[in-house]
Amino acid sequence: MSETASCSSAPHSTRRERIEAILRQELSPTTLEIQDDSARHAHHAGAKALGGGGETHFNVAITSARFDGLNRVARHRLVNGLLSEEFSSGLHALSLVLHGEKTP
User: Which domains does the chain carry?
Assistant: First the structure.
């Protein structure tokens, strides 16, 4: 079984675990930090509308060779596109710090 197949078929019980699996699989990062910041936003109307269950706001820092040659907007679009299913199922906001291996 390929690494891609095993990663996508493995059950991930939390949004954080799903985000990490997607980003590791698609970006092969040398560094990846994911912090759930939902508790700080629990009082926001958007978080309340989503049921207040948390896992709606994350801070993510990634270093990946996939970002080399991409400008800041393209890097953000790439990550947001990879996580589009999470956004459609309750992810509300990402704070992103994205660095290439060769280009900051």
Answer: 15-44+55-100 (3.30.300.90)
